[in-house]
Design goal:
The complex is a heterodimer of chains A (459) and B (233). Chain A is α/β, with parallel strands linked by helices and 459 residues long. Chain A is 32% helix and 22% strand. Chain A folds into two domains: 208 residues, UDP-N-acetylmuramoyl-L-alanine:D-glutamate ligase (3-Layer(aba) Sandwich); 143 residues, Mur ligase, C-terminal domain (Protein-Tyrosine Phosphatase, Chain A), CATH 3.90.190. In chain A, 52% of the residues are buried. Chain B is an alpha/beta fold. In chain B, the strands form three sheets. In chain B, strands 2-1-3-4-14-13 form a six-stranded mixed sheet, with helices on one face. In chain B, strands 8, 9, 11, 12 and 15 form a five-stranded antiparallel sheet that branches. A four-stranded mixed sheet of chain B has the order 6-5-7-10, with no helix packed on it. Chains A and B meet through α8, α12 and α13 of A and α2, β9 and α6 of B.
């Protein structure tokens, strides 16, 4: 057996490994997607399965509220582009069963590890079982924000769970500009990444959510040297001195050249920005920081990164009938994720028209989905005159209209239609006005259908 | 008319702050907040006070800030000022919050006690009734309050109450309304908002009444679907 595993597997493990591996072709033959089921089989037959599996020398885990999928995928792509054999949970969930399913292909039937690196995205709550079983070399925490209320309550709660779940001694790569996640597991070895002052920074919060309004240590007043959005930025408590940590990987952005220079103790490298969105800049600096932690040179990282791009399903664009149509993931139930997207859209030049489909679609029929997050989300960005039309679709369309009106969006700019396909027909689709199709994690397929429908209408 | 949003720097979870904004907008009143740590109600009359959900750490800070004004709060409540405490804000007004061996003294305005269990959060969607008005919403509780039965706010039809045994939700005394229901409670419940306006002596429609009622009716219909489940774990 090559690779490292925490425990030596017994009969249960071998049965689980073979059964789970066999289930993959069986599912394919019967026309089912092999997403989480093989992992569930493995877990059922052998609890703690991942601790018996062989893992490569390099194992990176990524968690946090926003950006973990992008960061994990970028790391996989970059390592692959630099010649490494990699495995990760791109196609399956970020829970134990999904991670297990994904990593099955990284070992042979004799539990021989066949890859050089594993990069896994881990749900914050799933860290409890996955981190001790996999024993990663590095844990990246992208940030901690409010997320789905029903799953995560509030950011402080998630931070307290992570504090309990992070194994002692695990090396951390943390966001110094996030005063919530930067304080995680204070006894663990760590490095911090961050982005130096930008000309777009502010000091006062313009967002609805600001989870560091007062000092988390003494409830004193926090003074921000600069602030990006929400509580992200550099701050200090005027009463007790509690402050943001210094950067180990410090990024300086040059928007005029579309590049970012990242400095650390042993050098600097200049990298092409993956997009002009601030959250993608954070994703990039965390990826570079992680690869530097693995010992890669700036030159090698830059060469590999130049070959990758952000996965298209989260943001992609096409032209339909002479109109630029952008599909953009705006995670439902996640007010920060949507606020970032709204902010980005409102800051783009030209006129825009939006179709909102963030409805927690899969909750319909079972739950009258909680809409608290609409009221934490900065719909106010959509009141900008450059946003000429907003179409609300899906089961929560009436709640969405009310929220838009409260945000100051004039009623004549709002259209309503429950059915997403019919709603897409309400879009004006005028050349010169960009159309954004905003969809949640539950509505990816719906978005693809809508885009196809729009294309059919223009044929 | 003045509507005070109390401790917004501490009590800012789940969009609860919209209750004060919406009440002020519907009443044609002024939304006021403290410029420093001294509540507005301490120095001038206000017509209503709204307080929303907060983190457990901020509950301790909020109690610390409000404790010097306990007598004033009691005086306002006895005098009929409207208080709306949503989410775990209700717990501040009780005798104490117990978290294992840790006992956090509350403001002691009322006699109920809250018990916190951070490892056992309970969530539900909610359907209930207050004076013939159907109340909808959702709850997410790390803690439950005991001793609220004498002055219940809402009778439970779907979901759970102030604790898992009772069929009553929240606490209602004079014009103090405390409920574990989260978020934009008044926006989700336009009929209750209209009731509050009547209490405040305001006649007329609430803000965006048509849209608010349309969303409410849609949600109510969903919650009344036969076989509907309410508990969410």
């Amino acid at each position: 057996m090559s690779g490292k595993s925490k425990k030596r597997g017994g009969l249960r493990f071998w049965l689980a490994l073979w059964a789970a591996k066999l289930s993959v072709p069986a599912l394919k033959l019967t026309g089912h997607a092999a997403t989480n089921f093989p992992g569930k089989v493995a877990m059922k037959l052998c609890p703690g399965f991942l601790s018996y599996m062989a893992h490569p020398e390099t194992v990176i885990a990524v968690t946090g509220t926003n950006g973990k999928t992008t960061v994990a995928n970028l790391l996989l792509d970059t390592l692959e582009a630099s010649g490494k054999r990699v495995c990760g949970n791109r196609e399956s969930s970020n829970m134990y069963s999904g991670v297990t399913s994904a990593l099955l292909s990284s070992v042979s039937v004799f539990n021989k590890c066949r890859v050089d690196a594993e990069v896994i995205e881990v749900d914050e709550h799933a860290t409890r079982l996955i981190l001790p079983d996999m024993d990663p070399d590095l844990l990246i925490v992208t940030n901690l924000f409010r997320d789905s209320l029903m799953r995560n309550a509030h950011a402080e709660f998630v931070a307290s769970r992570l504090d309990k779940n992070i194994p002692k001694g695990l090396r951390l790569l943390l966001n110094a500009d996030d005063l919530i996640s930067s304080g995680l597991a204070p006894e663990n070895p760590r490095a911090y990444f961050g982005i130096e002052k930008l000309d777009t920074d502010v000091t006062e919060c313009v967002n609805r959510i600001n989870d560091v309004r007062v000092c988390p240590k003494c409830a004193g007043r926090m003074e921000f040297e600069y602030r990006r959005y929400h509580h992200i930025g550099r701050a200090k408590c005027v009463d007790c001195g509690f402050a943001s940590p210094d950067y180990d990987y410090s990024a300086k952005v040059d928007k005029s050249t579309g590049t970012m220079t990242i400095r650390d103790a042993s050098g600097a490298g200049t990298y092409r920005l993956l997009s002009d969105a601030i959250y993608d800049m954070y994703n990039l600096v965390s990826v570079v920081g992680a690869l530097r932690q693995l010992g890669m040179s700036h030159e090698d990282i830059g060469a590999a990164l130049s070959k990758v791009k952000i996965a298209g399903i989260r943001r992609d664009e096409t032209t339909i009938g002479g109109v630029r149509v952008i599909n953009q993931l705006a995670k439902d139930k996640n007010s920060i994720g949507c606020s970032r997207v709204f902010d980005y859209i409102h800051s783009q030049p030209g006129k825009k028209e939006l179709l909102l489909m963030m409805n927690s679609l899969l909750d319909e029929g079972h739950w009258s989905e909680n809409v608290c997050w609409y009221y934490d989300c900065d719909y106010e960005f959509l009141a900008d005159p450059s946003v000429t039309h907003v179409v609300c679709a899906g089961p929560r369309y009436k709640d969405m209209k009310l929220r838009l009106l409260l945000a100051g969006v004039p009623e004549e700019r709002i259209s309503l239609e429950r059915d997403e396909l019919r709603a897409s027909e309400l879009l004006y689709m005028e050349p010169g006005t960009d159309v954004y199709l905003l969809y949640g994690t539950d509505t990816t397929d719906t978005m693809l259908q809508v885009r196809e429908h729009l294309a059919d209408l223009k044929k | 008319m003045k509507i005070e949003l109390l401790c917004p720097e501490l009590c800012s979870l789940y969009g609860d702050h919209w209750n004060a904004k919406y009440l002020a907008a519907s009443a044609g009143g002024e939304l006021v907040t403290a410029r420093n740590e001294v509540p507005v109600f301490a120095g001038e009359p206000v017509d209503a006070v709204c307080l929303g959900s907060m983190t457990e750490r901020n509950q301790v800070f909020a109690i610390g800030r409000l404790l010097p004004y306990r007598d004033r709060i009691r005086e306002l409540i006895e005098g009929g000022t409207v208080f709306l405490a949503t989410g775990n804000a209700m717990e501040l007004f009780g005798r104490e919050i117990r978290d294992g061996d840790n006992v956090i003294p509350g403001l002691g305005i009322f006699d109920y006690t809250s018990v916190r269990q951070m490892d056992d959060r309970r969530c539900c969607y909610f359907l209930g009734e207050y004076e013939g008005l159907e109340i909808v919403g959702s709850k997410s509780q790390f803690s439950f309050s005991h001793g609220t039965e004498e002055h219940p706010f809402i009778s439970v039809k779907g979901g759970f109450g102030s604790d898992l045994e009772t069929k009553n939700e929240g606490f209602h005394y004079k014009n103090f309304f405390g409920t574990y229901l989260l978020g934009p409670f008044l926006l989700l419940n336009p009929h209750f908002t209209r009731h509050l306006l009547t209490v405040l002596g305001v006649d007329g429609p609430i803000a965006f009444e048509t849209e608010c009622l349309a969303a409410y009716d849609h949600r109510l219909k969903e919650l009344k679907t036969p076989g509907r489940e309410f508990l969410f774990k």
